[in-house]
Amino acid sequence: MNPVVVRLLAPLPALVLAPLLLGLIGRVKAIMGARRGAPLLQPYRDLARLLGKGELLSTTATPLFRLGPVAALASTAAALLLLPAGPLPPALSFPGDLLLLAYLLALGRFGTLVAAMDTGSAFEGMGASREAAFSALSEPALFLALGGLAWARHGLSLGALLGGGTAAGLARQAPALGLFTAALFLLLLAENSRIPVDDPATHLELTMIHEVMVLDHSGPTFAAILYGASLKLWIFASLLVSVWIPAGLPAWASAGLYAAGMALVTVSVGLVESLTARLKLAKVPRFLALAGVLASLGCLVLFAGGRP
Amino acid sequence: MSGPLISLGILVVGAILSALCGRRSLAAARVALLSVSLAAAAGTPTALRVLVTGRGVSWRAPWSLPWGSLSVALDPLSAFFIAFILLLAVPFAFYGRGYLARHRGSSWHSLSWSLFQILVASMVLVVSAADGLLLLMAWEAMSVASLFLVIHDHEEEGVLKDGLVYAVAAHLGVAALLGLFALWGSWAGSLRFADLSAVPLGRGASWTLFLLAVAGFGSKAGLAPFHVWLPKAHPAAPSHVSALMSGVMIKMGIYGILRILLLLGGWRPGWGYLLLAMGGSSALMGVLYALGQHDLKRLLAYHSVENVGIITIGIGAGVLARTAGMEIASLLAFMGALLHVLNHGLFKGLLFCGGGAAAQASGTREMDALGGLLKRMPWTGTGFLIGSMAICALPPLNGFASEFLIYSGLLSGALSGRAAPSLVLFFSVPVLALAGGLALACFAKAFGVAFLGEPRSAPARDAREANPWMIAPMMALALACIAIGLLAPLMVSLIAEPASALAGVAAAAGGGGAAAVLTKVALAGWALLLLAAILSALRWLLLRGRTISKAPTWGCGFSAPTARMQYTASSFAEPLLGPLRGVLRPRVHLVEPRGLFPEGGSFSSHLEDWADKILYEPLFGGAANLAGRVRPLQQGRLQLYLLYTLLALIALLLWQVLA
Fold first, then answer.
1. pLDDT, tens only, B475-527
2. Which of A18, B267, B466, B593 has a Cα at 20 to 30 A from B160?
3. Cβ within 8 Å, pair A120-B452
4. Which of A196, A106, A195 is nearest to A143 (CA)?
5. pLDDT tens across A35-64, in order?
6. How far apart are CA B205 and CA B603, in angstroms?
7. Residues of A in contact with B404 (CB under 8 A)
């Protein structure tokens, strides 16, 4: 196949399958809670229903209220261009693209925050303030984990640092990689407003973080927000999984491992959500500090072991 | 060399003419606009030519002053800063013309326009001087001119006090610089840069000179812990002056550090470690204190401390990487630092212009009295938004390009091994990342509280858009921020020469790699814009023909919301500052509501600078105490003074006899 076409294929699985992750988490939670729960494809139905509606805008809001979610979805989708997907190489790859990934996620967050503040609602301001604080505190852990991976694989592009591990290297660096994976998993929970940091299913505005920021959105814009959230979940899960896929496998094996890994991470999120309680908001910084400590430990283990 | 000299001449003539305008301050403003624009037109082409070709020029004239020589020179580093100063002064001058338009003409305003031009001229001279004495004279002119510009609104409460802090800080800095050049000159026998760099220096000597340079130039740059004057002086000044000082003048400190590094040669790894530590602590302290501010302009001033910290991290990484033999990492870090100098000038200038316009329109700088200004001042608000995104290093704007280069320098140095320099560079990355995350929180707060939501006070509700003289420069600065982000690879040719001189590599060798990477970064920026455009179009298509209704914001069932129920600047920062209460120690005033029908509870908190409380208050308190003890000697009684004279004469006589 034409290499340019192949390069543009990498974001496709995410674009099509990301809402499925949310459905899968919902199924796991329903089964664990012995409820009948929503069907697996419910997120797609939600999106379709929202896309068919009109919109309700706040009289306080400016055009930023609509532009913020658009910017957030655009930046999350752009971040997908940088990620490999199993056997598919990333669409855009250059040394240092891990920085672009982190800052694209930051841009998405900024868009959401600004749209929330635009309503002038105390609740949405509260959510924005919490989101801003917790995301800021999770940045060091993200950079430590990605930087450590870059050091381990001796490459500054996500293509190299995610897909560049040999089977022998994986075995040798397993302790450090395990710590990075743990850190990234904690970040996945925090950045995607999952229990124990946030609860996507809560009904009390005072306790929400992400959900309360999007209270006033409706219709296709709200669909963009939901879809963007599922893409963001996919990005974090994909980071975790790609670390462990050895280079040089046949395409089908790599694709199979990738799919199995994504399913495993998603089910784990569902299990964590079913089995743990939410942390007090004041304790969330400690949770994020734990991610930072795990990532730092990973780096130290890595430096002590040296590079093969 | 003629270009910058002509610029200097134009600015000096303009300054004199402006001062002569007296009460016709509008004429003074016109003279200033003309002279600043002409100076930029005259000086920039020469500077750009030096930057692109890498071939410096110099000029020397006889001078009767002892020790000094009237020699000026333009190497790529000077040329970069000259172009930077001259090009940025133009929009700030135009903005100032609009900002001062509400006042009636007075000779004080004419004088202030004259000082504005002197400030620009002295900065041009600072970066082109090739002689220690000439540099010090220009430096002092810069400090004095900016001091009088800071106390422009001297009848306002507190402005004179802030000016005093600035005057003391500036002169403590000059004292360190005097020591630096006096020591070095005494070893070299001359103060010309060529002679200074030729003198061989031992370990102790070069460390002494380096530390004096960091103290002297670092205090002007606003590096922690020398930063306390900055958040006091910059907000007190009129906004076009704040923009010029925060955007441009503090970079003279950065220039000074870079120049001394070039002249010293023989760098030591310790310098890199020290600069990284100072840069990292400035970045973190600056952004944390910024989060705690309620005053919009003071918040911006603390962000200057943060950004100077980021630039210094770049310089420190460059120094450390070069001493460890990692040339490419060093080059990337220096390129990032230089590009961030330019970028910070653009977006911080833009933010000060926007913040100043908002404060002027609503009569207060208190963020908690503002709100909803984007609707009332759409141009100003848009400018402030673009500036906020740029300073948070969000792609596709210019701040990302420069921070990307600094990060790349850190990471590529870190990847080269596990020796001490690599590890330090590696662990600088999360520091920079944390500062970035906190900056994003801070600007979501500043923009969100001041420009979005509903106005929290009557003056904010009645705010009107700024005049075109102010809007046009803001839009120009915003466009520059966008253009540099989207055309980042083109900027490499402007920073490759000075950065490669600092990194000690050939410009052609490393610049190409950086340009190739920045091309990809810019490409991603374009892709992002394309995606956003497609998504907006999709949304429009979907909603065509459907009902879009409007209603008040959902108040969770509460029927009588007021604007004062919105999240304020303090409440927004609480989740970040709350856990740090033990370290930052904010001063809290709390009146709890009491009784069955509680009334009149209140809460306010102020964040005071740690360096002020721990370092400077005891220091200056001690100095004042000491001065008080000497005071009995000075009674104001003539007899006593005659006695002192007699005693002094006797002492001299004895000394003469005994010697």
1. 999 999 999 999 999 998 889 999 999 998 876 666 678 888 999 999 999 99
2. B466
3. yes
4. A106
5. 999 999 999 999 999 999 999 999 999 999
6. 54
7. 96, 99-100
